[in-house]
Amino acid sequence: MPGGQTLLTVRNVTLLEQGQTVVANWSLDENLQSCVHFYRLVYWDDFSEVPKDVYMTNTSYTIPNVVPCSKYNVKVSAWTSPTQEGPVATAAYTTIAKPSAQPHIFNLVVDKHAAEMVWHLPEYHCNRCPISKVIVDATPQFKLTIPYQDSPLRPDVVINLTNLTESTVYKCDVYLQNNAGLSPPVHVLIQTHYEPTPPPPTSPTPAPTPPTPPPTSPTPAPTPPTPAPTPPPTPAPAPPAPNPLNPPRPLSPH
């Protein structure tokens, strides 16, 4: 190496976001590039458990699958032999904010005048831009904005809709809002229940009245037998008429 130089210094490390990647670039004195055995790049974000260590011979590396609103830290060094590392150059970059992905409806319970929705939110490691609001835009009737306190755990969100009209279809668009804007909406249809008004109570139905038998005529008393007709009395025989030829004799005195 010229002048007995044994250590090479990396300069001008830049990080540029492209799509879902971050491209790291750096430079070295051109006349010393041939002295580099390899470059070592170490990178991590604020939530990485273990930094990633990569080796290459060119002066560029693309970090894949970067997460919105995450800070990425990079260290680059030039090695002139497998055991000789030059000074480490560092850089950091925070990825730009992007709207959240859609939430996912987990449960829906609908009643006559109310509905309860339970929503799963996108996992924190997929987009770390803090969610600030859950918005329900329903037709007809209302728009509901629910403040949300974000955290890496991102617990489910329970939304209660009240004062709904029975037997009505509500078309709901549900959004998440973060510092980059609104997520794509999720469309949900809610059909409230219908309960007919019960009729007023009625008096108990009386037992049916047995039919009245037709009136019966009284049984006539038996008719006494007709007595046999009484024969007329036999007239006494008339005294014989006097015989003029034989007049009666006068009775003799006693």
From TrEMBL:
Span list, region Disordered: 191-254
InterPro entries: FN3_dom, FN3_sf, Ig-like_fold
Protein name from the UniProt record: Fibronectin type-III domain-containing protein
UniProt biased composition (Pro residues): 196-254
SUPFAM superfamilies: Fibronectin type III (SSF49265)
PROSITE patterns, A to Z: FN3 (PS50853)
Superkingdom of source: Eukaryota
Domain Fibronectin type-III: 4-100
